[in-house]
């Protein structure tokens, strides 16, 4: 029964409604994004932005195109570059892995590689933990996948404070990556 003097039922109803509305507003707004230039598709948790810049991968100069979105301080990104020499594919993939791990002052704690007859260049997945000086010493988690198709290389990355990275969201992003 509803009583006016303290509005207890009304107050409880408003609190319950507030929690229900918050539960319905998702942090992740998944959308499929395709790149015609880099020939990939993936699910991003928000609308990504795309930028290109020249980088050096241990002596291999490339133009890297990065498509990325950030949610609550966690970055979801796919970088790709076209190489001119097939012999540079594996060294470039290894340089990307090393650079990303160094960016968080990290140590790889899990690594898995696989190759197939259709794509003999191995795809590698890593998980690294680190604490960069710029991040206030807070532990950073890096989950990444490195792949190549012909002479195009890819890095698929989730990075953020370890406590902020949703394993479920990271897995959704990493496993949604497909080469066209």
Short description:
The protein has about 180 residues and is an alpha+beta fold. The protein contains 3 helices and 10 strands; from the N terminus they run H-E-E-E-E-E-H-E-E-E-E-H-E.
Helix and strand content put the structural class at alpha+beta
What fraction, in percent, of the residue positions are helical?
Answer: 10-25%
Distance, first to last CA: 61 Å
Major sheet, described briefly? 7 strands, antiparallel
Strand content: 35-45%
Inertia-based shape: globular
Order of helices and strands: HEEEEEHEEEEHE
Give the neighbour order of strands across the main sheet.
3-4-5-9-8-7-6
Number of helices: 3
- Return Rg in Å: 21 Å
Q: List low-pLDDT spans.
A: 7-25
Q: How many β strands by DSSP?
A: 10
Estimate the mean pLDDT confidence.
Answer: 85
Describe the structure.
Helix content is 23%, strand content 44%. The chain is α+β, with helices and mostly antiparallel strands and 180 residues long. The strands form two sheets. The protein has a seven-stranded antiparallel β-sheet. Strands 1-2-10 form a three-stranded antiparallel β-sheet. About 11% of the residues have low confidence.
Layout of strands and helices, then pairs:
Blueprint lengths: L7 H17 L6 E5 L4 E5 L4 E9 L2 E12 L2 E9 L6 H15 L2 E9 L8 E8 L9 E10 L2 E10 L5 H10 L1 E2 L1
Antiparallel strand pairs: 1-2, 2-10, 3-4, 4-5, 5-9, 6-7, 7-8, 8-9
């Amino acid at each position: 029964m509803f009583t006016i003097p303290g509005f207890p039922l009304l107050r409880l109803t408003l609190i319950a409604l507030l929690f229900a509305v918050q539960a319905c507003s998702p942090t992740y707004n998944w959308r499929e994004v395709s790149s015609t230039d880099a020939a990939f598709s993936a699910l991003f948790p928000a609308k990504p932005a795309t930028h290109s810049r020249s980088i050096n991968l241990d002596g291999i100069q490339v133009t890297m195109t990065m498509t990325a979105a950030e949610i609550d301080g966690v970055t979801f990104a796919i970088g790709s570059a076209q190489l001119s020499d097939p012999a540079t594919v594996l060294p470039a993939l290894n340089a990307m892995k090393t650079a990303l791990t160094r960016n968080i002052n990290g140590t790889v704690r899990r690594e898995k590689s696989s190759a197939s007859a259709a794509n003999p260049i191995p795809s590698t997945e890593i998980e690294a933990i680190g604490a960069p000086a710029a991040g206030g010493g807070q532990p950073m988690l890096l989950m990444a996948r490195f792949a190549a198709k012909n002479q195009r290389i890819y890095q698929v990355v989730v990075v953020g404070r370890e406590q902020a990275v949703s394993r479920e969201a990271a897995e959704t992003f990493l496993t949604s990556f497909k080469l066209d």
